[in-house]
Amino acid sequence: MEENLEENIEGEVFFCPSCNEDTEHEILKESGSLLVKCLNCGHVHNVEKEPEPKEIRVRAIISIERDSMKGTIELLEDERISVGDLLAAETEDGESLGVEVASIEIDDKRVGNAMAADISTIWARVVDRVILKVSYHDGRQTIPLYLEYGGEDDIVIGETYRSGQYRYKVTHIKLRNGAMMRKEGWKAYARKIKRVYGTKAVY
Q1: pLDDT at residue number 32
Q2: What span, in angstroms and rounded, lies between the C-alpha atoms of 88 and 96?
Q3: What's the pLDDT score for residue 149?
Q4: How far apart are the first and last CA of the chain?
Q5: How many other C-beta atoms lie within 10 A of the C-beta of residue 32?
Q6: What is the pLDDT of residue 142?
Q7: pLDDT tens, 1-56?
Q8: Taking a C-beta distance cutoff of 8 angstroms, is the pair 57, 76 a contact?
Q9: How far is CA 52 from the centre of its chain?
Q10: Nearest to residue 141, comparing CAs of 54, 74, 56, 51?
Q11: What is the pLDDT of residue 10?
Q12: Domain residue spans in the chain?
């Protein structure tokens, strides 16, 4: 009976020194560090908590055909942005738009790429797609991903998704109205989502 219960525990992925690989763990205690138990071998050990990356808002000039408007783009402070990247912008009216980076400005100079914290302004053009921001945690660090979806596509908590080399399970969803969804099986339209959070999926 205990084995069946353990198999149903929703774990987070950390490196297990006993298994010598990344496995799902149950978090037993959370303080300055995490006390975790490997769901594969049962080994209990401590894991240092990864500090949450700081989110910043970068000024954006958004072009729609011949018109332009001011807005912001929410990025992770240590994220590198390049011309051609697909991002999610927010207008002064609170509207969310999928955009493609056309130019990056740092201290009145145009560059091809830069760290988010160094950027003064992002010049971008609207694209006809919803760009979802995903904070993917692989057990050691948080990696920002940007995925294209149709506005009416469902994103479901607990389901597994893939982006290039990354395969992750959605753990919670932050909606544009500020609400946070955490219950497995709950879902939301892509156009209503501000950020998706996921952890490394174990095959």
Answers
A1: 73
A2: 7
A3: 84
A4: 24
A5: 7
A6: 84
A7: 333 333 334 457 788 899 888 787 887 887 778 888 998 899 999 888 766 678 89
A8: no
A9: 11
A10: 51
A11: 47
A12: 2-48, 55-126, 131-200
CATH class of 55-126: mainly beta
Residue spans of the chain under pLDDT 70: 1-11, 50-52, 128, 202-203
Q: Per-residue b/e over 78-96, b at no fewer than 16 CB within 10 Å?
A: ebebebebbbbbbeeeeeb
The percentage of the chain sitting over the pLDDT mark of 70, rounded to a whole number, equals 92
Measuring CA to CA, how many Å separate 4 from each of 1, 7, 8, 36, 107?
Answer: 5, 5, 7, 19, 59
pLDDT at 2: 35
Structure tokens given for 64: 């729609």
Residue with tokens 């149950």: 26
The whole-angstrom separation of Cα 151 and Cα 148 is 9
Residue with tokens 């080994």: 43
Give CA torsion, residues 125, 131, 132, 134, to 10 deg. -70
